[in-house]
Hints:
Layout: E1 2-4, E2 16-21, H1 25-32, E3 41-44, E4 62-63, H2 70-73, E5 89-90, H3 95-98, H4 113-117, H5 120-126, E6 154-161, H6 167-177, E7 181-185, E8 188-194, E9 201-207, E10 213-216, E11 218-223, H7 227-236, E12 260-269, H8 272-279, E13 283-285, E14 288-296, H9 298-304, E15 309-315, H10 316-333, H11 342-350, H12 352-362, E16 376-382, E17 391-398, E18 404-409, H13 414-434, E19 437-441, H14 443-446, E20 457-458, E21 489-491, H15 506-526
Parallel strand pairs: 1-7, 2-3, 2-11, 3-7, 4-18, 11-21
Antiparallel strand pairs: 5-6, 6-14, 8-9, 9-10, 12-16, 12-19, 12-20, 13-14, 14-15, 15-16, 17-18
Helix pairs in contact: 1-15, 5-15, 10-11, 10-12
The protein binds flavin-adenine dinucleotide.
Amino acid sequence: xxxxxxxxxxxxxxxxxxxxxxxxxxxxxxxxxxxxxxxxxxxxxxxxxxxxxxxxxxxxxxxxxxxxxxxxxxxxxxxxxxxxxxxxxxxxxxxxxxxxxxxxxxxxxxxxxxxxxxxxxxxxxxxxxxxxxxxxxxxxxxxxxxxxxxxxxxxxxxxxxxxxxxxxxxxxxxxxxxxxxxxxxxxxxxxxxxxxxxxxxxxxxxxxxxxxxxxxxxxxxxxxxxxxxxxxxxxxxxxxxxxxxxxxxxxxxxxxxxxxxxxxxxxxxxxxxxxxxxxxxxxxxxxxxxxxxxxxxxxxxxxxxxxxxxxxxxxxxxxxxxxxxxxxxxxxxxxxxxxxxxxxxxxxxxxxxxxxxxxxxxxxxxxxxxxxxxxxxxxxxxxxxxxxxxxxxxxxxxxxxxxxxxxxxxxxxxxxxxxxxxxxxxxxxxxxxxxxxxxxxxxxxxxxxxxxxxxxxxxxxxxxxxxxxxxxxxxxxxxxxxxxxxxxxxxxxxxxxxxxxxxxxxxxxxxxxxxxxxxxxxxxxxx
Length: 527
Ligand SMILES: Cc1cc2nc3c(=O)[nH]c(=O)nc-3n(C[C@H](O)[C@H](O)[C@H](O)COP(=O)(O)OP(=O)(O)OC[C@H]3O[C@@H](n4cnc5c(N)ncnc54)[C@H](O)[C@@H]3O)c2cc1C
């Protein structure tokens, strides 16, 4: 059932078993676990079905440091959350990503890769993929495996595109009929309320625009508002504790990570078709679109003491049209035409054939024309090292609901730069060895004096702001994603990632949300 918070005078809500705040991938994949169960669930969502009910303005904050695109472009409020924008690319993290690496301070998950990977098959089902989609069996005969890559330096990696990526749309009719799960739309949680002892959340305050306030009561609360907003909600809830809920050790909002993307070299390919076939964006197998990529091997990361990273090949003709095309596509899809600028619409209209070709390339039906002879570029995505100074804080200004806006200090270190450099060197050597073509690195990559931050940006994958740990001195949630010191508050989403490898976050956050669902069921049944 869906309820509209704008009609708050008509709403009477009794205490539920679980209140999930936020209906993005994390919130909905958790709620999905409780369909037809004996437990009552209420999902509280700031947006609605319209694509923008005005609450996106609540996302605005202050950037203090490097530009951070994810703050505004990386998330949207509405039923389904940012799954309305994402590319649907599902990727596993690697075993090494979970280990403590002595060359990466603050690395290491308190749970093993296998504990998370056990949930990947169930995550695949959420996105309409085969359970074995990314275990290597479906991709063995891909052309990338014919390049003769030296696997002691580079490893082949894959991601699969979900055919059911708009999770809100997939679940809307099911939830409409559900007898145990309700969704409150247009309701923004403004504060978590603690009981007298401070050890439990007694309720959450919900506001609909600037109208009256509701209090939702539940046995258990889960925040799944995205990595930025999860931290913000904890920080702003200061009625009982000066630094906010779960923040006695000043860790909430710290360790903000994203993935860092940069184009590092020009490739003059001897056989452009071979290169494109091998390291192109899209292959199809069993009706599923896959992306083939080359990543740094574990051996190379250990030997060079670098972070994880992955590369793809980028072609010029794609660049001109793809970004405007994506913005126009999103604007039309979400029926919010202002998501694209006038220039975007004009660019797409002025190059209709290029737009069709770019769309066909992206779907795996065509080669970019540059792949047939033009120059290509090496595009690298690297892990960001966890860094307590890279963080989300509260600013002095308030949003329209009276909640402090955030300030983002996204900070990169030499670790990311060094990883980009090692990637450029490794690909140069390997492509030369294989006779694929010559690689010319851009000057900034080797120039220690350059302002290298200008050449990189985030890729809208915020994570790490409420990291998981096995002790409260070094994290915000425990291994079950429960906030330390608070008995009934859990967090879902990439905010709990201690490190994030290079992998796009959704597949792993979904696996963790399903794992959390199993844990909550056990907990509730024991009560
Ligand atoms: C253009 C783009 C492409 C991407 N492509 C990929 C990709 O291919 N693969 C991948 O893995 N990742 C991708 N990502 C990243 C991915 O989309 C996000 O990491 C993911 O969707 C976040 O899911 P979430 O559930 O944690 O948060 P969100 O989806 O952001 O959901 C949070 C929800 O909480 C609600 N909310 C927030 N605050 C409150 C509040 N106070 N009260 C009530 N509700 C609240 C919001 O309205 C929202 O609906 C992409 C991102 C973008 C922007």
